[in-house]
User: Which sequence fits this backbone?
């Protein structure tokens, strides 16, 4: 099996790469990543010498590059994670999201279609990793199911919704064997410290303010990243073609409650007086178009594929905090920008 994983140097992608490389030694895993600010080869340090892991630096927006790798390597499957992933950045620069998330996805679809049409597409699979944000915002009740209408509110979620539609359209029009998953908020090791949990862990360590957007009453459904990687493995191998699956932890937290819990655990870990870190909480201007609440109904993947999260939120958060405290060098390299030299040191 020759599997293309895109975005494998990023947060979730690095967990997927490690899982596939170590669990399936007979597979060759081709990790294509542009190494944007979010891509970090230090995330894969422990497996950089594994023979079945091939890193290829490249941009999925570049059609020629995409066509070339598909001509050279006859991929049996694509696990597509590469994306611009941060909502706040999408508000500042929507076009970057259109380019990578939409055009990049269509480039990959075209290249897959071309090689799989020549061949028999039986046994091939295009797997698009997507987000619950495509469904828009929930009110105080209800859950997103696989049949909830798409209603994206941010440039990020609009670009992911568009790429989902393209994948589905290639399935209908060209019989592309595809599967899509829509997952809730991930957290865990290797999380880039621009997102809520790693940013706040970093700021607490450095005694910096914790900028809670608006009143902090926004709700997210949190899932430990290894549990997402586990679901991706399962769906890639056992999911049904032309289906979508929602993935989530049945684990809703209002931001302000989550931040208070995080502060209290950090006080314990850093041997500070309980309440010290909560004093850093600062309410700041709200995110424009901020979705009130996301919550996933993961019944389908649980019933059909037997997936369920392996850790509770409290366990996952402790593991995450322990990882960040034990990997201060990773965090320092990211915040200083030094991680961006890693490719040159390793591959030039
Ligand atoms: P991330 O930002 O940490 O990583 C994205 C990776 O893609 C980086 O390594 C980056 O270098 C690479 N990349 C970006 N543009 C590229 C391009 N043009 N060509 C090649 N590589 C490029 O993102 P993440 O949080 O790991 O998310 C991965 C995927 O999962 C995304 O598709 C995202 O939409 C989806 N997702 C994320 C979450 C979450 O909570 N983080 C939840 C659900 C779905
Ligand atoms: O739901 C899945 C999505 O989760 C993924 O598709 C995205 O790629 C991922 O970035 C994440 O999006 P969010 O916008 O929910 O994540 P973020 O960590 O940016 O914000 C989580 C919540 O915390 C949100 O309500 C905004 C709030 N927040 C965030 C930051 C960075 C703050 O209050 N302060 C902050 O500084």
Assistant:
């Amino acid at each position: 099996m020759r599997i293309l994983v895109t975005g494998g140097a990023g947060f979730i992608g690095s967990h997927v790469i490690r899982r596939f490389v170590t669990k399936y030694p007979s597979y060759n895993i081709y990790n294509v990543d542009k190494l944007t600010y979010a891509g970090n080869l230090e995330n894969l340090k422990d497996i950089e010498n594994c023979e079945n892991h091939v890193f290829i630096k490249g941009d999925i927006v570049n059609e020629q590059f995409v066509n070339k790798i598909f001509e050279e390597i006859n991929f049996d499957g694509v696990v597509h994670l590469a994306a611009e992933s941060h909502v706040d950045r999408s508000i500042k620069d929507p076009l970057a999201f259109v380019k990578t998330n939409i055009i990049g996805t269509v480039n990959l679809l075209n290249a897959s279609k071309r090689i799989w049409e020549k061949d028999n597409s039986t046994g091939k699979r295009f797997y698009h990793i997507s987000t619950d944000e495509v469904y828009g915002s929930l009110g105080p009740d209800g859950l997103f199911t696989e049949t909830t209408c798409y209603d994206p509110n941010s440039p990020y979620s609009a670009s992911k919704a568009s790429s989902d539609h393209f994948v589905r359209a290639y399935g209908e029009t060209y019989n592309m064997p595809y599967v899509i998953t829509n997952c809730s908020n991930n957290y865990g090791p290797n999380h880039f410290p621009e997102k809520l949990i790693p940013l706040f862990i970093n700021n607490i360590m450095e005694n910096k303010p914790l900028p809670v957007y608006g009143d902090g009453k926004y709700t997210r459904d949190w899932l430990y990243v290894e549990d997402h990687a586990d679901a991706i493995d399962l769906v890639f191998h056992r999911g049904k073609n032309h289906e979508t699956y929602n993935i989530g932890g049945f684990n809703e937290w209002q931001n302000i409650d989550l931040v208070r819990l995080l502060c209290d655990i950090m006080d314990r870990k850093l041997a500070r007086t309980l309440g010290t870190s909560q004093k850093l909480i600062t309410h700041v201007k709200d995110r424009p178009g901020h979705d009130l609440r996301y919550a996933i109904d993961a019944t389908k993947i649980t019933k059909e594929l037997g997936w369920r999260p392996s850790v509770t939120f409290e366990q996952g958060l402790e593991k995450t905090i322990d990882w960040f405290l034990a990997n201060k060098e990773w965090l320092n390299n990211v915040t200083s920008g030094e991680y961006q030299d890693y490719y040159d040191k390793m591959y030039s």
Observations:
- Residues 94-118 form the longest helix (25 residues).
- The longest strand covers residues 125-131.
- The chain has a mean pLDDT of 96.
- The chain has twelve helices and twelve strands.
